[in-house]
Amino acid sequence: MFHSVQTIAVTGGKGGVGKTNVSVNLGIELSRMGRKVVLLDADLGLANVDIMLGLRATHTIEDLLNGNCTINDLLLEGPFGLKVIPAASGTQELVQLGALQHAAIINAFSELEEDIDYLIIDTAAGISDTVLSFVRAAHEIMLVVCNEPTSITDAYAMLKLMNSRYNLDRFHVVANMVKTPQEGREVYQKLLKVTDRFMDIALSFTGMVPMDTHIRKSVRRQKAMCEIYPDAAAAHAIRKIATTVDRWPVPTNPRGHTEFFVDRLVQMAAH
Ligand SMILES: Nc1ncnc2c1ncn2[C@@H]1O[C@H](COP(=O)(O)OP(=O)(O)O)[C@@H](O)[C@H]1O
Ligand SMILES: [Mg+2]
Where are the domains of the chain? Predict the structure, then answer.
């Protein structure tokens, strides 16, 4: 009856650091490994997941609430069976609806949970209440960081806020767009140095993704990099990260439920 779902929020504070590319390709690699993955696009920005994958949304959350479709109609099918809930389906409204609608959505999500191993949430840039809601509702938090002062500063600001305001103390770091493996470790070390001094948190290094032109090429072709360039350096790196993520302990408490996730999400948005 109880099926644990690993919910992972991919965030980082700053825009343009690679959150969406990491989310999509991590989703694809976990799917390739045989895991059942749903990717929730929680960013209404321009680089939407459905567009990146060349998918077309046919239904919206409004259709769901009006009883004109089920949660399964919202899901778009990507490579290797990866399921995508596109932002165009009204994900932003998800945190702004009334109690009855929340209940309907929570119920709808519970129809999915038997089949999912992972729910990956690709968040927007910044530390808006919407972003914070998604991040707080997730079980694991993955920070995508680049070796740029603004990226490190924004990631730090996010860690500080999550820790001081919500007592969250466990974060995973992915260094993106690194030119050398050493640079990847350095990004993590920089973040570790500032957080070690001021915060009581556990920061783990999940991996790094090299700067790779295949990423831009695949975005232009509206295909996922891991699907069309599986031998690219960045694809190998993401595969390694997927293997690491797949070894994370699966939540044993209800926080791992999609139902619980959506419940938390809407509860927090109500405040
Ligand atoms: N490892 C990488 N190597 C090269 N380009 C990258 C890499 N990761 C991301 N990019 C590029 O950086 C830009 C921002 O990536 P995106 O995933 O949309 O970031 P975010 O979601 O954080 O705003 C895109 O043009 C993407 O192609
Ligand atoms: Mg993005």
Answer: 6-269
Ligand 1 atom 3: residue of nearest CA: 211
For 119-168, write each residue's pLDDT tens digit. 999 998 988 877 888 888 899 999 999 999 999 999 999 999 999 999 99
Distance CA 149, CA 254 (A): 37
Q: Which of 17, 21, 158, 236 has the most ligand 1 atoms within 8 A of CB, as the residue to mutate? A: 21
Q: Rounded to the nearest whole angstrom, what is the distance from the C-alpha of residue 143 to the centroid of ligand 2? A: 13
Q: Is 155 in the pocket of ligand 1 (CB under 6 A)?
A: no
Task: Output the pTM of the full model.
Answer: 0.91
- Angle, helix 258-269 to helix 99-110, in steps of 10 degrees: 160
Residues, CB within 5 angstroms of ligand 2 (ion): 19-20, 43
Contact between 248 and 136 (Cβ < 8 Å): no
pLDDT digits (tens, 9 = 90+) for 166-203: 999 999 999 999 999 999 999 999 999 989 887 889 99
CATH top class, domain 6-269: alpha beta
Q: Which atom of ligand 1 is nearest to the CA of 43?
A: 21
d(CA 40, CA 133): 14
